[in-house]
Amino acid sequence: MGYSTGRLYAMSMAMVWKSCLSIGVAAIALWSAAPAHAQAKYVPASSQDAQSQAAVRQQNGQNLPAREIERRVVPQVRGAQYLGFDYDPETNVYTLKFLRDDSVIWVDVNGRSGQVVRRSGGSR
To answer: Which pLDDT score is estimated for 61?
Structure first.
């Protein structure tokens, strides 16, 4: 009698493992079949809008490329670590962010001309 109970247990455990394995394989298949954009990192819509507007202005020759603005401005902020930039399509201003001695420095740059229009934070 104990033998038959053990055999039933062994059979039911095999069925459980097969079910778990099937579910796992199905989950992996569904995930890998999902479109790449569904797996992409979330970016807020406002950020996407600003990026697309900056790209359109650049393509139309209205703005300098962001890399050109960085190439011009980053060397001007000596001794600081460059963190990146934000773009405001309403004002057409790139705000480059730097870190020096635990202080954040913001440098606002005109997107069309590449001229620094304002600098704030940190010590000069």
So the answer is: 66
